[in-house]
Design brief:
Rossmann fold, 2 domains, single chain, Metallo-beta-lactamase, Chain A, seven-stranded mixed sheet, 14 helices, 21 strands, alpha/beta
Length: 457
């Protein structure tokens, strides 16, 4: 199967021509433009036909003359520009063409078909199956229903199987996938999934679309039923300027991509691996490092969240911090409040994910357990306590190296400011800097978060 992404943008494209936000400015500076979402499968099946589809095909050096089916998800003008049918009628086209979609799509197309053009129109409902030139198309339910907008009420998604057995899921526009849709694609093991991700960081949009909080949850649900596998190419489409300019990096944590317009997906090509197995996220206080770490595992099926801070009875500020962190964790995550991080990593399996937040609190707890602060520097007891700390650190580093799980660890980056006044502060600073460096040496990805921006080290 060969899929050409004719467009990957939302209704207004990205950048929005009227907008001066940082996201739009960044894309303009890169010369990157995303036009309305549409895809061409094997030159035979066109998925959505919006205002940019014809021109994008020409920009890619393609003719649509071999297209035998146009599948339209719904009648919003960024997905359906029926004037395309009039343009076809002005050519010597003689091959039959099927335009299929919800009733609102068919109604919008009726008056645009030329009198001698061999175009047939087919109304599809969720659950319908149609075969076109050896391509089997299953119409699926979408969650794009807005009662105030009849053009979205009958929106569909498409499950397309090609003659060679390859399979594609085209899922735009939709909010959280309906249970019936997830159930209908159980075991599908799609080769390609084009899943909408419109609103990026904007979580209060209240629309029938996905964002960077709800997108990974759909991936998790599809993986749980075998619709997405390690071999599936997942591409986010219908992107808008509510996304950060580095959206491809964010999606990569979940095994997805944000490919540019006119990119080609060929299932015969090797599938490059995505995502890291061991990652360290560093940052200062309130830098956003914990959110970045949590986001990295948002699409995982089984996550153990290792909270190393413990309980602090009577400390209301600490209790408030803990409540905030707990509220962000998905309900299917398991929490382990422990300093025995090495044991958790050792017990985790290859299908598990472990988030450790954080190493700085873990080190403080290990120093407390070793009674380091109760001994006099230079004394035998002090040396013994530091030797115990070193054994715990070595065990942790070894567990990071050998764990079969995917692991994300969070730690504070210290030592860049004023030298601590007290010997205890200097010792902690030095030990944490060394711990971070040793753990980083075992990780295939290390990130520094500064003011919410993620820098790859």
């Amino acid at each position: 199967m060969r899929v050409v992404l004719l467009g990957t943008g939302s209704a207004d494209g990205w950048p929005n021509a009227w907008c001066t936000c940082a996201s739009c400015a960044a894309l303009r500076a890169r010369g990157e433009v995303r036009r309305t979402t549409s895809a061409l499968v094997d030159d035979v099946v066109l998925l959505d036909c919006g205002p940019d589809s014809l021109h994008q095909a020409s920009a890619a050096g393609l003719s649509l003359g071999a297209v035998r089916a146009v599948l339209v998800t719904h009648a919003h003008p960024d997905h359906l520009a029926p004037v395309a049918l009039l343009a076809r009628s002005w050519t010597p086209a003689t091959a039959p063409l099927l335009v299929a979609g919800p009733r609102s799509v068919v109604d919008a197309c009726r008056h645009w078909v030329g009198p001698d053009d061999p175009v047939s129109l087919l109304v599809l409902d969720a659950g319908d199956v149609v075969e076109i030139e050896g391509y089997v198309v299953r119409a699926l339910e979408a969650a794009h229903d807005d009662r105030a907008d009849p053009l979205s009420a009958d929106a569909l998604l498409f499950d397309v199987t090609t003659p060679d057995g390859s399979r594609l899921l085209y899922a735009t526009d939709t909010a959280a996938l309906p249970e019936a849709t997830v159930g209908s694609v159980a075991g599908a093991a799609f080769d390609v999934v084009l899943l909408e991700e419109t609103f990026g960081r904007k979580g209060d949009h209240g629309t029938g679309h996905l964002d960077l909080a709800t997108f990974p949850e759909q991936l998790r649900r599809l993986r749980a039923v075998g619709a997405i596998t390690d071999a599936t190419r997942v591409v986010a489409v219908h992107l808008s300027h509510h996304n950060p300019p580095d959206v491809d990096r964010v999606l990569g944590q979940w095994g997805a991509r944000a490919l540019p317009d006119l990119a080609v997906l060929d299932t015969g090509d090797p599938h490059p691996p995505t995502g890291s197995r061991r990652r360290l996220v560093l940052g200062g206080a309130r830098s956003g490092k914990s959110r970045e770490a949590e986001q990295a595992l948002a699409a995982e099926q089984r996550v153990v969240y290792v909270a190393t801070g413990g309980e602090r009875p009577g400390d209301s500020e600490w209790a408030a911090r803990v409540r905030v962190h707990r509220s962000r964790r998905p309900p299917h995550w398991t929490t382990a409040e422990t300093l025995d991080v090495a044991d958790v990593l050792g017990a985790a399996g290859p299908d598990d994910a472990v988030l450790v937040d954080c190493l700085s609190l873990w080190l403080a707890g290990v120093l407390d357990d070793a009674r380091t602060w109760e001994t006099a520097p230079g004394s035998p007891a002090y040396a013994e306590s530091l030797a115990l700390v070193e054994r715990r650190v070595a065990a942790l580093v070894d567990a990071v190296r050998t764990t079969r799980a995917r692991v994300v660890l969070v730690s504070n980056e210290v030592g860049s400011g004023v030298v601590p006044e007290h010997a205890s502060g200097r010792l902690y600073r030095d030990l944490l800097g060394t711990l971070n460096a040793r753990v980083a040496a075992e990780c295939d990805e290390v990130s520094l978060v500064v003011a919410g921006r993620v820098l790859a080290l």
